[in-house]
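Quick review question:
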């Protein structure tokens, strides 16, 4: 449903590829626990009745992974989440006295191998497979060449670093507090899950416990990612809502006996109306809130400032049209935010840089950022690289003023 909405409104929304990663992760979140733990590849007792559903679910995940490899460097999160679910189920099978049948185990291992190998089904196989490692390097500045890239882009820095520097103080504080809460909750939830599984009899099924354990572990991982870089908050927040909020509702709400009592307080009856005896998924609480926040929040204020879907306030519309009818013999220098638009409008012209920073070396990026502080260096490079035309934004990006 959300994929369809994003496709229909792709020109109205300022879509970033990470939105598709969130959709894919949400699908994995719901399907993979069933495949590995609740049935599917795990339970062969149903025979033919379960084959169609299992094959359909597995092919859906593999098809999404195939598309994900070409849309976002975060595609590696899908196989990692699958590996977590598989590892917990394998550990559970070894400790509960219900070992995974050999045939099912082989199917699970083959499915895992296909997930990790999916980049090689594309023409750029090896490059796609290695891309997440380069992305992690640029994000953390692990190598000396990537240090400038990691430090110059605000959303690549840790909220702790931003808070100490006095940047985005409120947002950074919120991220740190929520991440700390999530880490504490995940640790407690993991301890409770493992202690509960040990205390139950081996004959009793404990699949649901390990599903919750997998989700708590994923919450822990995303919380750590937030503390590493601010941009990872978008990966963390949906998981935080999906794991922590149901627990809060279940803990703070009235007990089942209270729900059926004739003398239930008004607040409990209101809770009963909202939760339908806790049968209603948490998503129905979140969707109206998120919809209102979306319509009246940053998106509404942002779009109200623009005259059209492709607005001159954001990209050089008139300049691109002029350049299309006035070709030049040299090369073009542009800022990174306009590069994609300029290449789209006039593909025959050269562009100096666009938003795909990872395709450039850290030395190149450092020199590009240095032009605004040292214009003489730019004039020298322009002569050396035969740049005879410059397009710079003055409306929305103060660096070039």
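Suggested answer, residue by residue:
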């Amino acid at each position: 449903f959300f994929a369809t909405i994003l496709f229909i409104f792709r020109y109205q929304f300022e879509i970033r590829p990470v939105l598709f990663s969130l959709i894919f992760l949400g699908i994995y979140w719901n399907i993979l626990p069933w495949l590995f733990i609740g049935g599917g590849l795990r339970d062969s007792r149903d025979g033919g009745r379960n084959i169609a559903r299992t094959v359909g679910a597995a092919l859906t995940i593999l098809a999404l992974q195939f598309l994900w490899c070409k849309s976002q460097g975060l595609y590696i999160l899908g196989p990692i989440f699958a590996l977590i679910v598989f590892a917990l189920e394998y550990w559970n099978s070894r400790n509960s006295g219900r070992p995974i049948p050999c045939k099912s185990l082989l199917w699970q291992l083959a499915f895992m191998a296909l997930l990790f190998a999916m980049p090689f089904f594309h023409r750029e196989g090896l490059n796609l497979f290695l891309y997440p490692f380069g992305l992690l390097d640029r994000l953390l500045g692990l190598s000396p060449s990537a240090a400038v890239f990691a430090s110059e882009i605000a959303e690549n820095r840790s909220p702790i670093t931003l808070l100490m520097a006095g940047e985005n103080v409120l947002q950074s504080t919120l991220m740190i507090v929520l991440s700390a809460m999530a880490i504490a909750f995940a640790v407690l939830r993991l301890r409770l899950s493992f202690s509960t599984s040990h205390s139950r009899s081996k004959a009793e099924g404990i699949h649901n416990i390990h599903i919750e354990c997998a989700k708590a572990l994923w919450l822990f991982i995303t919380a750590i990612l937030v503390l590493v870089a601010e941009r990872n908050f978008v990966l963390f927040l949906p998981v935080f809502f999906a794991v922590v909020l149901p627990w809060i509702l279940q803990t703070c709400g009235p007990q089942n006996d209270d729900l059926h009592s004739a003398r239930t307080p008004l607040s409990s009856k209101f809770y009963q109306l909202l939760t339908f005896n806790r049968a209603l998924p948490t998503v129905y609480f979140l969707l109206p809130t998120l919809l209102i926040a979306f319509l009246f929040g940053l998106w509404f204020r942002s779009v109200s400032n623009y005259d059209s879907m492709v607005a001159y306030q954001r990209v050089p519309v008139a300049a691109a049209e002029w350049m299309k009818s006035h070709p030049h013999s040299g090369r073009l220098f542009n800022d990174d935010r306009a590069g994609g638009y300029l290449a789209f409008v006039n593909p025959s012209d050269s562009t100096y840089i666009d938003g795909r920073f990872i395709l450039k070396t850290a030395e190149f990026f450092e020199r590009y950022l240095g032009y605004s502080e040292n214009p003489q260096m730019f004039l020298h490079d322009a002569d050396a690289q035969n740049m005879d035309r410059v397009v710079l934004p003055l409306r929305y990006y103060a660096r070039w003023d």
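Why it works: The CA atoms of residues 272 and 278 lie 8 Å apart. Strands lie at 331-334, 387-391.
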